[in-house]
Design a protein that fits this description.
There is one protein chain. By secondary structure, the chain is α/β, with parallel strands linked by helices. The protein has two domains: about 200 residues, Rossmann fold, CATH 3.40.50; about 100 residues, Helicase, Ruva Protein, domain 3 (Orthogonal Bundle), CATH 1.10.8.80. It is built from 15 helices and 13 strands. The radius of gyration is 21 Å and the shape is globular.
Length: about 325
């Protein structure tokens, strides 16, 4: 297991800025997306990036991995991918002195930064191979359990579910992603910069700016940030406002929501807000931190009923209503 480096708040901000700038060497635009991914990393969570092909999702993940001195693995999800292709399997090997034995060969999940590329291209059976790893940082194979490296961070990319050849992720797996970050198409100025950078004689190089002990130290320091009691109550009320069965939910929630966000969402929002506060030079969480991260934390945890889907109402509308209904 990687050691933990003790950091000061100033060192946290320096490492945060260095990581953000390093990723920016290769990724044009998407500043908010990069910051949300960094929030996930330094909060110890996992991140799901959704967007159409060709807008830089995989490049963002590769650039982040390049900026960190951590073991990196890439899993290309396809319809014929099997669970053993991810977690590993037992193989029959010949002993040096003769005879046969069983030996476990690790799969690509045994990395600190794991890119699950186009995760919704694989079948639900294969997608579920990540469940234990993402929650417990362990995998079980043939009645034996193996620990994964620490830190452990899954960055998954997926195409919109309306596209052909995709399988929706199970609700239980979606809930294990701390954030679902939407990656949009670039603006004209960014598009021109992308063309300029990618058609020249040289390609941008991403410097390595942090190692495992630094990342774990940043994760540990973030947990020391304070959330005032009234903001803790605000956080809880926002999460509960996504539940149609609670007292006086927003009208849109009562009408179109089947299931609201889980307690895991409240934990994710609290940790993310702590990281954001430190990155902005504060030792305590503000209401603005919670409101800024709530859409990315809650959007994939709100399940709509048939009426909501038929009317074209999205989770963003529900989250916005929940935030507007609660005051700190």
């Amino acid at each position: 297991m990687t050691a933990v480096r003790t950091l000061s708040p100033e060192e946290f901000r320096e490492a945060w800025g260095a990581a953000r700038d390093a990723v920016g060497q290769a990724v044009v635009g998407h500043a908010e997306v990069v910051e949300q991914v960094l929030v996930c990393l330094f909060a110890g969570g996992h991140c799901l990036l959704e967007g159409v092909p060709g807008i830089g999702k995989t490049l963002l993940v590769r650039s982040l991995a390049a900026s960190l001195d951590l073991p990196f693995s890439r899993i290309q999800f396809t319809p014929d991918l099997m669970p053993a292709d991810i977690v590993g399997t037992d193989l029959v090997v010949e002993r040096p002195g003769g005879g046969l034995d069983m030996e476990f060969r690790e799969g690509p999940i045994f990395g600190s930064v794991v890119l699950a590329d186009e995760i919704n291209r694989a079948t639900p059976k294969t997608q579920s191979a990540l469940l234990q790893a993402m929650e417990e940082q362990q995998v079980s194979v043939a009645r034996r359990t193996y620990d994964l490296p620490a830190p452990f961070f899954v960055l998954a990319t997926q195409n919109p579910l309306e596209m052909e050849g995709t399988y929706p992720l199970p609700e239980a797996q979606l809930d294990r992603f701390m954030m679902k970050v939407l990656v949009g198409s670039p603006e004209l100025a960014d598009l021109l910069r992308i063309v300029e950078r990618t058609t020249g004689e040289t390609s941008p190089q991403v410097p390595c700016v942090a190692d495992g002990p630094t990342v774990r130290g940043m994760q540990a320091l973030a947990r020391q940030v304070v959330i005032a009691p009234h903001l803790g109550e605000f956080l809880g009320r926002v999460v509960l406002a996504t539940h149609p069965g609670r007292d006086t939910p927003p009208e849109i929630v009562r009408r179109v929501v089947r299931f609201g966000a889980s307690p895991r969402a409240a934990r994710a929002l609290a940790l993310g807000a702590k990281v954001r506060a430190l990155a902005l030079g504060r030792a305590n969480v503000s209401e603005e931190d919670l409101r800024a991260l709530a859409p990315a934390v809650l959007r994939h945890r709100v399940l709509l009923n048939f009426e909501g889907e038929a009317e074209g109402i999205g989770p963003e509308d529900v989250v916005r209503a929940a935030l507007n209904s609660v005051r700190a």
